[in-house]
Amino acid sequence: MFKRPPVTLDSTPPTSSSPNAQQLHGLNLDFLQLLQAVQHAQQRSSHHGLCLSESMSKSLLACDQAALQRMATCDVSLFSLQWHRVDEWLRLAEHSATDRTQTQTKPSTTTAPDPTTQRVLNFMQCAVFFGWHLAQHDEQAARFILGMSPETASVIRTLDLWQCGFISQRYRKLLMPRWLHNRYFWPDLLHYGRGGEPEQLKLLQLLGTQLMAQDLEPSAIARHTVTDDE
Asked: Which residue in 41, 122, 162, 170 has a CA-CA distance of 20 to 30 Å to 115?
């Protein structure tokens, strides 16, 4: 189904029973439920980055709570905030300070968000603070379960708490399903959710490790694998 390059991440990933992994499982479940809500939303265009293909959308909507819980415990984040891109987080750090200053000098014209948008904002706040916490206290866990690069972790450690809150409220379009560009990850994830086969989970976790390594060390991966289109 997919080619697996002989590339591994350094050290040992956190165990599924660790507090950080358990927090991740909860966030993954919240994200999957959020994705279901977005697929149901009448104005899906407002959440373009969270819209799945027609076939995956139908498959996700058919998942019951047990299937969602199985998918949530795959030990890597199912959501992306571009943690591997230090350039993006340098931009967010700079813009959050600038935008907040400008916003304080302008009258507020913000209207109340619709329920689905409010759910996105609530999730963003939890996800950003979780990433900030891991960057501060457990960079290794941030690397393994979020795919956060050391350079990004260094930037996030400089953020004040108000910047985290501001980013979560103003940059919600940063949120998207992780590795949605890959032709296998989400179909395999949904297949595992429906069936729960242990071997399917092992393949899914192996693919996740490959994709994470590709995010964090693209030059190394390029020497060992082919593109998705080949």
From this structure: 162
